[in-house]
């Protein structure tokens, strides 16, 4: 009964003597407390791996990585410094395997309360897919944060074509063009043609300094939504829907325009990647644009 249990990862022989870049676990569920004071605990999925450079080692010890995650489950806030320490602990825990690199990623949804555009006291919650990650190797530790933002985009070309149809129809109408007559005609015919618009997504990645106090996800989301000007809304009444229509009309944009707006607004805030996708309502395919800043 007291005989030691077999440890095949240590005693077994590898089937092929080859190194592996990454070995570990993905999709580990845990509550995660962010270092940012404005946000508490989120339900996250973690991915943790180390490298396995020694060809003769059959496997790593997965339980060591799992146990290292537990101090970050709800109790201690995950700051950039804490994530850097976790990676060093992961690497150290597999020194007997020759591991000299580690990486980790946490994916979750960040809930933010958003007010209606014009209706006082009306608000709702919006979920932003987000991720925090880091990689440690001989070149040091690199940390990043990622967020996804949904917004509306109205095609500038489609808007111009719609305006031309409406203008041509007005020119052909009968009756005196008094202000009241124009007003009445527009009330009835201004939607003779409408530009196509669609829900769109922007995925943004930021480089994070190891000594940063927090991740500043909410602040970066705010800057991105201000740059786009047409983020999707939560609770709305008719006045808010009208205000949203006005924002779309004032901010016509191609996918290229959206990507450039985001790059210009966030380049000074650690932005390293921009990926924009417009899920076209005109086409059965999407329009995309991307930039890599680092």
TrEMBL record:
InterPro entries: GTP_cyclohydrolase_FolE2, GTP_cyclohydrolase_FolE2/MptA. GO terms for biological process: tetrahydrofolate biosynthetic process. It catalyses: GTP + H2O = 7,8-dihydroneopterin 3'-triphosphate + formate + H(+). It comes from the Bacteria. The record marks 155 as: May be catalytically important. Pathway: Cofactor biosynthesis; 7,8-dihydroneopterin triphosphate biosynthesis; 7,8-dihydroneopterin triphosphate from GTP: step 1/1. The keyword Hydrolase applies. Keywords: Hydrolase. GO terms for molecular function: GTP cyclohydrolase I activity. Its EC number is 3.5.4.16. Belongs to the GTP cyclohydrolase IV family. Converts GTP to 7,8-dihydroneopterin triphosphate. HAMAP family: GTP_cyclohydrol_B (MF_01527_B). NCBIfam families: PRK13674.1-1 (NF010200). This is GTP cyclohydrolase FolE2.
């Amino acid at each position: 009964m007291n005989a030691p249990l077999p440890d095949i990862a240590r005693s077994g022989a590898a089937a092929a003597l080859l190194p592996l870049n990454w070995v570990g676990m993905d999709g580990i569920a845990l509550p995660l407390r962010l270092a940012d004071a404005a946000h508490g605990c989120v339900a996250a999925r973690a991915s943790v791996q180390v490298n396995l450079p020694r060809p003769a080692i059959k496997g790593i010890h997965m339980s060591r990585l799992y146990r290292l995650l537990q101090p970050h489950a709800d109790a201690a806030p995950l700051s950039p410094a804490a994530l850097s320490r976790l990676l060093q602990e992961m690497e150290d825990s597999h020194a007997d395997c020759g591991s000299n690199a580690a990486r980790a990623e946490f994916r979750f949804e960040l809930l933010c309360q958003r007010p209606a555009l014009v209706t006082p006291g009306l608000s709702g919650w919006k979920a932003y897919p987000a991720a925090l990650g880091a990689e440690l190797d001989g070149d040091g530790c690199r940390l990043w944060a990622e967020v996804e933002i949904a917004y509306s985009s109205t095609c500038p070309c489609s808007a111009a074509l719609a305006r031309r149809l409406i203008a041509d129809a007005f020119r052909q109408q009968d009756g005196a063009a008094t202000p009241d007559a124009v007003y009445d005609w527009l009330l009835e015919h201004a939607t003779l043609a409408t530009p196509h618009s669609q829900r769109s997504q922007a995925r943004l990645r930021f480089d994070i300094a190891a000594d940063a106090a927090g991740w500043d996800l909410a602040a970066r989301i705010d800057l991105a939504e201000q740059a786009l000007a047409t983020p999707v809304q939560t609770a709305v009444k008719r006045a808010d829907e009208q205000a949203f229509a006005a924002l779309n009309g004032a901010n016509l944009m191609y996918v290229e325009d959206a990507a450039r707006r985001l790059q210009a607004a966030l380049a000074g805030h650690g932005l390293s990647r921009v990926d924009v996708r417009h899920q076209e309502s005109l086409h059965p395919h999407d329009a995309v644009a991307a930039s890599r800043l680092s």
